Each structure stands twice: as C-alpha cells, then as structure tokens.
Model the fold of this input.
Amino acid sequence: MSANYQLNHLRELESESIFVLREVAAQFENPVLLFSGGKDSILMVHLAMKAFHPAKIPFTLLHVDTGHNFQEALDYRDALVERLGVNLVVGSVQEAIDAGMVREETGFNATRNFLQTAVLLKSLEDGKYDAALGGGRRDEEKARAKERFFSHRDEFGQWDPKNQRPELWNLFNGRKEYGEHFRIFPISNWTELDVWQYLAVENVDLPSLYFAHEREVIHRDGMLLATEGDLIPRRPEEKVEKMMVRCRTIGDITTTGVWESEAATLEDIIAEVSMARQTERGGRADDKRSETAMEDRKKQGYF
Amino acid sequence: MTLDNTELLRFTTAGSVDDGKSTLIGRLLYDSKSIFEDQYEAISQTSAKRGEEGVNLALLTDGLKAEREQGITIDVAYRYFATPKRKFIIADTPGHIQYTRNMVTGASTANVALILIDARHGVVEQTRRHCFIASLLQIPHLIVCINKMDLVDFKEDAYNKIKEDFQIFSHRLDVKDIDFIPMSALLGDNVVEKSENMDWYGGSTLLYSLENVHIGSDNNFIDCRLPVQTVIRPYSDEYHDYRGYAGRIAGGVWKKGDEVTVLPSGFATKITKIDTYDGEVEEAYPPMSVTLLLEDDIDISRGDMIVRTNNQAEVTQDVEVMLCWFNERPLQPNGKYAIMHTTKEARCMVKDVRYRLDINSLHRDEDDKEIKMNDIGRVLLRTTAPLFVDSYRKNRITGSIILVDEQTNETVAAGMVI
Done:
C-alpha cells in the first residue's frame, strides 16, 4: 500500500517549506519576508500563498533596495504586492548613504552589496520584526550549507555558526530574548534545479530577465556583467558587446553576472541548469572576494 | 510539464575523525557528477595553496573557516545530489566526540545512516556510539562502509573480521536492516563504480544501495495524527465562515468523512474537507501539509491534535523518555525546562533519572546518574499540560520532544518517548 502513498521530491520539499512557514506565523509576533525579486523569493511568496490559503499571507514583504536594481524586477515586485494585497516595506541603501550611515565603495569593482547588511539590520530594528524569512538555500554556498531552518541572531544581528541550536525532527525552537531575532530559511533543502522544476510545474510567472534576451554586456574576471547605462565603471580595455544572455540569479546589477544563453522557456532553463557545469553563484562577484566571503558577511548579519 | 517521480532520500554519515567521511561524500558528489566546475576549481586552488597532493575532496563539505583551519567538520553540513532515480539530502555530521549532538540532529530525519569504519582500525568506541545512536533514533536502514580497503591490500579477511565484530555488537541493537560494503572512498572503489580490486565482494556499490533501498514504509500510515499548527480564518466575504486547521500529517491516511476526535477536549466530529491551495484532496498522508475542515464548530487551537476516534494518542502528563543531553550544563535533577512536542509547548520538571546509559557497554548505570553533555539516560518528566504522545518506535514525530533551557533559550536535550 505504501507505494501509493509516496510524495515525489518536489511535493515533499513543498510540504516541508509550508510547515516551516506556518511555524513562523505561529511562533513569531511580527515576521517579515525578505523579498529581492529573485526567483527564490518569488518561490517563497508562492509557498506562503499556499501555506495560508485562502487567507492572505500573514507577512510583510521587506525589500532592501540598493538603488541598482533592474527596473523590471521592481515592476514585477510592485505588481505582485498589488495582486496579493500585502504590505511592502523598502529599505533604501541610497538613503543610508545620503544620511551618512554607510559609505559607498569606489573603484572599478565598487558595489553596494556589502552596504545592504547595515540597511537590512536597521530596517529590521525599525519595524521591530522578530523573524526575517529568507530564500537562502544550503546548496548555494558552503557556509550556507551549515544553516539551520531557524537561525538565531543576537541583538547585533550576528550569526554564530559554531554555536547553533541543534535542530531535530520538525521541532523548531524559536525562543529568544527581546531585541534578538531569527532568520528563517524555509527552502533550505531545495536545490537550484528543484526551484526551476517546481516553478515550471506550478506555472509561476517570472520576470523576463530570467529568460534569454539581447543585452549589452562586458567581460570581467571570467564573468559577464550587464552594463545598464553607466552603473559599472569600465576599464579602458573593456568593450561593450551585445549578446543573448539571461540571469540565473537577480540581485544588485553591479554584482549579478549574466550568462550566455538561448533558453527562452522554463523547460529550456531546466535543461540548461541540469547540464550546467558552474554553480549559479559562480556569477556572483560578491562571493569571490575571499574563500570565506559568505561566512564573513553572514556573521555580520547579511541575508 | 509533468513531474518526474523522483523520491527524496535523506541520509546521514557518521564516523570517527579521519575515517574519510568528507572524502566519501566528496567522492559521491564527484563521481555522480554533482560537483560544479567552479566548486572544483575553488577546492583545487585551496588544496594547492595548502601544499596538498591532489584535490582534497573533503574541502567540499568543510565550509566554515574554523573547520578548514583545523581540518575537521564541526557542524552538520547539508549536501544535495541527484541521480535519475532519486534526490539525496546528506546530513554530514562530525565524528569528533564533543559534537555528538550533531549526529543526533542529522539522524533525526534520516532514512539511512552510513557508518564509516577505517579498515585498519575496525570497530572502535565511536563506531559503537554512532551505531547505538542510529538505533536509538530508529533510522530504518544502516549501511556500514568499511573504508580505506586500499590500506589493507583489499583483503577479504579484513572485511570479514570487521563485519563479524560489528554483528556481535549490533545484534543487541534495534536495527532492522544492515548492509556492509568494502570500499575506498579515496580511490573510488565501490562508491559509484564497482571495484576492480575486490572480486570477492558480490554485493552492490554504495550508490546502487542508496538508489534502491526501500523507503516507502518509513512513514507511519496506520495511526492518524495531525498536530494543529495554526488555524486559518480568512476574514473575507468570500470565505466568511471558513475555519481550517492547518498542519502536517504526522501519521495515517485520512479521508473526507472520517470520524475524528480532537485532543485534549475529546470532542468527536467528522472531516468535511481536506483542503489545499490546489483544491480539495481525496486522501492525505505523511508528510503532506494540509488544512482540515470539520463538521462541528469546536474550539481548536495550535497545540491540539486531531486523531481518528478509534485510534488515539496517549494523553499524559507523565512522559518517560530516552534523553540525549546536548548542553555543557548537566541535566538538573528536579530541574524545570520548557518542553516542545509536535506543535505544543509546555513546561516540565525532571521527576526521576532512571539510569544513565554507558553507550560502549550498553550497561545501565543506576548509581552515577548525572547526565552530562553527550550522555544518554532514561528520564521521567512531569509536564504542566497534557501531551498527546505515541512511542517513538511507533511514530518519530509524535514520539519526540526537545527540552529548552528557559534562561538561555538553548535547546539542551532531545528525547524519544518510550
């Protein structure tokens, strides 16, 4: 009989994520869902919709805006918020720079990626959020592979990877002191391929940046970067070229590499991802600064 | 687009320091072509920088700075790979003694445990400990990987000797299914590819075993249990009277019309609908997340449990458990802790420590009953509110608890209901 009662891997992952999302709604007073406009946060919103149907998603959406976003990602975000009837809060890196809270990097590889941490922590503090749901996955990066579903942060927002609470069965301990918060990762166990397969099965609408399109790019350090006007200072030898490309992740323009691709549909993307010989973060300049770049940023309170 | 029907298998790995666990996982990932070029490039650079010969596959799992510095795994690392038959989640747990809590963590959700043994050293104290934990946590299948066969000249006697030693120890444990595989993770023998150096071994490779072990009956499909996580009330015109009880099925197969009872109130009613975002479903079973709608308007909230009327969980405030202690501060006799069980939270007091278990001899120590970090003991707890429990043997979800220190909020222990 048991043969008939076996969920396939996508449904099992879905069910696990829904369980975690419902635990967050039940255990925390003021949870927020970190929304970047990327496919992982789009998946998170989709799963949250499923978890609380037919009620509305009980989370505010928080977007940390570096000011260097693809316009299309912003349009997608606004349309989604409108459709779901949820609250959107935007934490602005530009405002933080203007207020002198953080200082902008300069030079050819300048990025606002590292400034996001301070803005994120301030937004969480301002909104008195006690849990922040993120779309981080353990297959993304080696430090992320050690994350819990419920990840405790002290009053400074810091992560202590050597002293994490053990997480057993499906018992999630969200107890904390006032002023501390949790980062919650409901899609911890999904891989990039799982995400794409699921988005395809569920027919989820995605920003067209994820599909192949013609775009002006430059080559740098073995990656392709989208130029988007004058956002990225160019070295004299770097030439702008037009190519068919797509995004595998969508983040701040200055650190999101694009990939040469002809994939026009989700099925094409799935075929491409299953053949891919590079991880999706292989196109992320922010991870390449040092061997433990992600761990260092996470300890300070990064996503 | 249709779904390919791939099952998910979770396994955990356990071994002593230097048994080659990280190398084995690296080998599985590498030979099943689950390692990406940029990852491989990064670890070869690191290996070269450290002056190591060849590429150190262990670096794939040792992600934290301290782990790389010390060359040991500190925390559970999760890894993912897939073959056309199955998707795998690996919980790679450290073998270092003070981190035993991580093995318990990895074991709690695993279908299969890989126990690594260094062929030169045979069954050691750590092997017994890991094996005992696997049986205590009721991991349904054990695969004993007798590794580093290349260092004993691939000799059959070495393998047989370890297998016999292991069986002498393991027949006293509660493990249903044990398999033995001789291998060399470093060279790749019997991991993904069949070994050319061990003709005497007629069994399957590790990957073949992982792809084919039967996991269809690892869940409980008999005893219907639904711990209520949250109540869904849309407060909209369209769904004015909607009141759904959301949760993940912890046991049994559920159908519309089933007679159910709500614990602790004891009210009986019927299921009118099993709802999901994708519409009503005919049947619900573990580990599905669903929303139940009931015929009668009963007061139900988070922490309550819905069960079949003719098959109910035990309602009790006296819970006897096997406890694994994780914290530097030992278990306090008569101490008070917060207790979490399914979706219910209560407080409890330690009424009695029955005995502390010596994991190596399986001897029950009734004189020295102090339960310290990494100790396991049988304990009686008295809770402030009734819990709705099954024995852990019957159901891993409704039979498990954790204790939380109310001062530090740390998870200090995991318990299996006897």
